[in-house]
Protein 1
Amino acid sequence: MCITRSSNNYGPNQHPEKIIPLFITRLLKGLPVTLHGDGKHVRNWLHVEDNCQGVELVLRHGQPGEAYNLGDGTDLTNEELTGFLLSLCGADSSSVRYITDRTANDRRYAMDCAKARALGYAPSRDLVDGLAETVDWYRHNPHRWAPLLGTAAVERTPSHA
């Protein structure tokens, strides 16, 4: 048995409670998005298909009892991520509201992915292309995510992975 730990995943069909789908769905509806604190918290982003490829690689070639971190090295502040999403959704900075930071919100998450890379792991998705694909999925599939957003869910703040 091996263990995999991945950085923050994103991609089509993710539940709209996490930051990327929540921001996309809000922006597509013309609603503002909220950033905690100063928006400078750093996270690493990994497309879900790259995560699945990494899990399969570890399953087939990992050493039993070992743990493998899966990430792609794309570190962004939440503010930078929001900038990409604003652009992809046709919105501007007037759609961003800064709110009080969450208690004990880590400033940065960092992972050492050397063991997974030693197995040959290398994500294939570029973050900007992956985000564009994800926005397109939400844009063209509101019937899949809109029923998940009740009135209260639309107004809540994001669950930052």
Note: The helical segments are 19-28, 48-61, 78-88, 114-118, 127-140, 142-145, 151-155.
Protein 2
Amino acid sequence: MTTHTTLDRNAGIAVWRQIMEALKAEIVSGAFEKGSRLPPESELAARFGVNRHTVRRAIAALTSEGILRADQGRGTFVASAPLSYPIGPRTRFSEIVSGQDRAPDGRLIGSAVEEADAFLANQLSVPLGTLLIRVESLRVADGIPMIVATLWFEQARVPNFVADYAETGSITTALNRAGIEDYNRKETRITAELVEARDAQQLGISLGQPVMVVESVNLDTDGRPLQYTRGRVAADRMQLVVSGGE
């Protein structure tokens, strides 16, 4: 007996996108495990009360995100679930991705030296006009773009950061080379916006799609601000998980 799922046709959200989100939620919850086969299009069409073309569009969107894969003649299979990304005192991209059996990588896509304006001076607790290193980074998991981020550091503290990050692809390793053995997250602020053209190109998403904006400040072991980051997250590929307070 086919289970029926009711869609809200007055929600102002395209039906195919509602189906996409419903399937994605089930994949995240474990209802469909990695490597498992999705039900046939005809069965999904009956479940959602739509035609097969609408189901096919939802599946195509999930396939373009790398969540599903189509095997000719065999069906559609779960390639990977959206990345679960915990936000906490020790948020480390490489550790989080590796812990979910995916291959992490960091790519340097730009850098510059600039003077701290009032906002950045406040975030990093440095005098106005202090020289900062600005780094543009793309973080990927299994080759799929996840986060495009802009990071700022006081140049005097990490003078070789750009070269070290370009070589290693790891922020933690690059900081270690500067003598900074550990760091912790002070705070995280999460908002949303429509993706900008340059970020859309880096993330491989369409203009008009939303991205999560994650702003954070990291402290060194002495409690001194070390890094301010403004990351733009592909909302369809990652779920941010914020732990409850103590």
Note: The chain is about 30% helix and 35% strand.
Protein 3
Amino acid sequence: MRRVARGDRAAFEELYRRSAPWLTVRLRRRCSDEQIVAEVLQETYLAVWRAAGAFAGSATDGTAVGWLWTIAARRLIDAFRRRAHHAQPPSAAAAEPAARAAEDEVLEGVVGDEVGDALRRLAPELRQVLQAMVLDGLSVRETSVLLGVPEGTVKTRARRARIAMREALS
């Protein structure tokens, strides 16, 4: 990231080569519109190129990936807002997870068996809210836009998910 911040095109190309496939998959899990995914991807890397100097973490501790995802998630929410302003909001199918995603497998490897089992037993709509708010760090409003449900529904699902996780882990 330091090299990208200095304007090193080769470093930027390497960052893109390593992260774009993963980022594309994550975006597709949240949006079925390929045009929006492509636009968000382009906007994300443009923002990274312009703001790499603002990155505070180190490339060795994995926070660059988190920073990259935060930018992409916010760009996706902006795209959903633009689309909602000009047409209909994203369909619920766009927010439904695909078959078994790589990030789910990584999550299972990171969290303990007990927590992983509790997460897998959650209803999909509760798991989506937890993923958006806890793993992706989105606000209630951003999660609402991302999932295409009212803010009150997000709050209710988050509360139900916390209760279910607490019960499963006690």
Note: The first helix runs from residue 2 to 5.
